[in-house]
Amino acid sequence: MYRLMKYVSYLKNNSASFAYAFLIFIIFASIFELLVSAEYEKAEARVTVEATDYANALKTKVDRELNALLFVSNGLSSYLTVYHQHLDSNKLSAILADLYVRTKHVRNLGVAVGYKLTYVYPVKSNEKSIGIDYRDITQQWPQVKQAVDSREGVLAGPLDLVQGGRGLIYRYPIFVDGQYWGLLSTVINTDSFFKAAFHNLTDDEFDFAIRVKGSSTVFYGNPSLFQNPKALISVSDLPNVQWEWAVLQKAEKTPELILITRLMSIAISLLLATLAYFFLSERKTLTSQAMQDSLTGLANRRLLDFRMAQTFAQSKRFNRLMAIMYIDIDHFKKLNDSYGHDVGDELLKIIAKKLNHCIRDVDILSRVGGDEFVIVLDELNHIDDANLIADKIMASFEKNITVMNKTIKVSVSIGIAGYQKNSEETLNSLMKKADIALYEAKASGRNIYKIYPESRKI
């Protein structure tokens, strides 16, 4: 009894201290748990952002590989439109043979007069397809009809081919004097196409699958990804068709910071102020890294996407002019290999400064890849002002650059696409046009800028 009374007396005398200590423990535990929850959400958001970046990289590579193939149909269409009345089978076969050699991932090229496939190269292994009438092929006719009705190119597949195997088919209709004349078909070897498109983009952390939007058939990757609620679903626009992508982190990882924070909340709760300081400092650093390129200090792709969307929305709302420039350093990999990565990094910093000196305060400069930059030109007085800035950029690289006691000749290629007043243009299509213009600049020998389309000055 005496011991019990002594224990009760001890508790009574120290009740305030115990209550305060308990209150501190509850407050500390609650604050740390809030921090842990915030860190977990941040980790989840980081995974989503990384998955989005990964999906965008995949889609960009597919677009570039596909655009290189689709130019074939555009050039051949012009030839057939002009010489359709005087077609020479030998000349046409020679042209198809030359185009076939110059392109990658193409299984065969075909020309249909009316709806009958008349010319095919190579003939070998494609004999079964020669002379077929598309109207008799149930699986392919809807896409053929869509191409003719829309008067635009249509990408279909992967489909089962008449001559055997499967492939993507790009069909481009030819109209002469407003009347349907025939159809160009480019059959793409899906295995080599996807292998080239996804080269150097395989990631041990993410898995992905692709299907045509609206279809349940997955033609690339693991079909179960589309059934996983944690998978990121994204859509890409291709000629008259949309592809749906599912990207999923292969294995969930518990961030080490979460475990460490929980242990610290129990073991060293009295150091809350210090922990809070380091946590906030780290959070600020992570936020800065999430929005800026660590090497050049320029806006990264995430910040660019946000500000570019704002600029485009304001241009549409207030009927203002704007333009997008895609810039690529010519042969940067060769420079990097020749002079070393240290010189390459310093060179990128100097180039970033040069580009920054060529634009105005209202413009946005971003580094979006190893040697790729994007400039968003806002509030243009006249759309021709984009040309002036491009000329200024090209002139800034006329002299050699000295980096770490090494004199280096550097040139850039630029693709430009402009947004006109009262245009129905979308931001995605404007970006694609700038990317196509950059591709044309590089294909034309580099060290120049190209405007989309070439026949129309910005």
* Alpha-carbon Rg, integer: 30 Å
What is the CATH superfamily label of the largest domain? PAS domain
* Top CATH class of the largest domain: Alpha Beta
User: Strand tally, please?
Assistant: 16
- Poorly predicted sequence stretches spanning 5 or more consecutive residues: 275-281
Measure the end-to-end span. 97 Å
Number of domains: 2
How much helix is in the residues?
A: 40-55%
* Class by alpha and beta content: alpha+beta
Order of helical and strand elements = HHHEEHEEEHEEEEHHHEHHEEHEEEHE
Give a verbal description of the structure.
- The protein has 458 residues and is α+β, with helices and mostly antiparallel strands.
- It has 2 domains: 25-253, PAS domain (Beta-Lactamase, 2-Layer Sandwich), CATH 3.30.450.20; 301-451, Alpha-Beta Plaits.
- Helices cover 47% and strands 24% of the residues.
- The protein contains 12 helices and 16 strands.
- It has helices at residues 2-13, 15-83, 89-102, 141-150, 190-197, 256-267, 272-291, 301-317, 332-339, 341-357, 385-396, 427-443, and strands at 106-113, 116-121, 154-160, 166-176, 179-188, 206-212, 218-221, 232-238, 241-249, 321-329, 364-367, 372-380, 401-403, 406-408, 412-419, 449-451.
- A 5-stranded antiparallel sheet has the order 2-1-5-4-3, with helices on both faces.
- Strand 13 (401-403) and strand 14 (406-408) form a beta hairpin.
- The relative contact order is 0.08.
